[in-house]
Amino acid sequence: MSVLFTSISPENPVKKEDANQLLQALGLSVRPEEEDDFHTLLAAVHDCAETVSNLPDYQPVPDLKRYPRQNVRRPSPEEQAFGQAWAHKFFIQGNPHGGLLAGKTISLKDTIAVAGVPQLLGSDIIPSWTPVTDATVVTRALDAGAEIHGTSTCENYCHSTSSYTSAQGTVENPFASGYSSGGSTSGGAALVAAGLVDITIGGDQGGSIRVPSSFCGCVGLKPTYGLVPYTGIASGDAINDHAGPIARSTLDVALCLDAICGYDGIDDRCLGSPAHGSTSYAEGLRNGPERLDGLRVGYLKEGFEHAAVDAAVKHVVMDAVGKLAELGAVVEEVSIPDHYHGPAIWTIQQRISGSMTLLGQAHGRRGLHLTEMERERLPWTADGFERAFPSTKNVIINGLYLTTKFPDLYGKTVNIGRRLRDLYEEVFQTYDVVVMPTTPTVAPRHGSRGLPVETLKPSMGLTINTAIFDVTGHPAMSMPVGFATAKDNAALRLPVGMQIVGGLWQEAKVLRVGHAWEQHYDWKS
């Protein structure tokens, strides 16, 4: 035993009955003759906890002298865009000597820690909390010369692919007010699409970079799991956490990826990633071939033939695939029947792991833990739960149910997820990339806040082609390839996204395909 103890001090709050009360929820108890000993042991661990609580925390110290935060504020109505696209406005000037992102303007999803800037997480369950550190991606963007103009609205605890769930307000689609900009990186995609910033750095646990990119006509990349450090970003589910850029061009995505990727010495997700500063994604696009001669592209049968995929979206993406053939690519149909299992596997993983995160029970990772946020949001209260968006309540309820009724299921989903990864890796032995529609439809109208099913309905089914790659960890990028008619308005045309997926650590191939398409075709025409 590593816990040292002596007699229980009078100040120690642990009571003799506490052990049994803790076990009662599990239907367990200790024998009467054991109560005194477990009281002593529990009191000892309480003393250990008090000792650790009184130690100073250890978080990276941001260089506020070099990168001061200027005029941090909640935006006024006059400063807002597309409803509530901005979470906080401020200005941080990056490296004055330039770098990969010199002159580029950036917003950050409101899950990314910026020291001194309150974070809302799209919620009002708790008051905004203020980080004391900068996320690794923030430091790296600033070192690369970027100008950061603020944090952009995310959906309520990031539990939605709609854009009307944030407690701060609705984010409107830049192409049509009243329609979704996607989620959960909703505000950032709208700001990029409108040209108000060049790049947004977002997070993706099920499609939260790619869905809004598809709806807003942006290029959005979910990199290989672990390529970009998640240090200092509020976690949804450690096994699905990805961070990456949204921009208006593949080249800007590549520039940002070069600037922010690589192990940072903190996040254990990144242990297998290349050294920071060693990648050359943007240079590869600038100096590489303009055509795709000899490159092998598979278009995924299951990604197109799912019943939820709108015929107009399928037609636009198939037309875009045909243009890859015009650029010299060898284009063939591929089939991975288990692709259809992706949403179910993702749902079980996310509900169980996501609920543990919400309840403060996530563990097993070496990295930076945002202790200020945990102190603010825990423990849950009846009032906080009542204010939670139905999707957040659903994650907690589902997770508690699954861990009680299916105790082996989380581990099984991890095992099957690895099988899905291996099935895709087999395909990537023959094909350089696989393509499919990003989302099955164009942006839908905003939903309404009512009973849970009614409220969640607008998001249902949108991640049938995206969530699986959070499970497998493959790099996946959405790029705009045309327009299709809105389901409820024949006169309205909205962006369509094509998803390009590559083998693990094969971002260069994904970016090359997207860049070549962009250089030869104008998606807006």
TrEMBL record:
GO terms for molecular function: catalytic activity. It holds the Pfam family Amidase. Residues 95-511 form the Amidase domain. This is Amidase signature enzyme. It comes from Aspergillus saccharolyticus JOP 1030-1.
